Amino acid sequence: MQQFLDTKEAAKHVRLSTATLERLRVTGSGPHFIKPIPTRVLYDVADLDAWMRGRRQLSTSENQAA
Predict the structure, then answer these.
(1) pLDDT tens for each residue of 5-33
(2) Sign of dihedral through CA atoms 16, 43, 27, 49?
(3) Which of 50, 56, 38 is CA-nearest to residue 10?
């Protein structure tokens, strides 16, 4: 697997739509990303995995992370 994924690949990796991942990026509540140039967004697979692990919950009644 590649170390860096574009938005479409990253969305597939975390099982979200590209629109949701883009919205999370705008609000700052998504995984860290890299902009090597102004028109390109990349995600490190390690950051995606860490973000997903950080969103674990034990019950549906837990407060959601902001």
Answers:
(1) 999 999 999 999 999 999 999 999 999 99
(2) positive
(3) 50
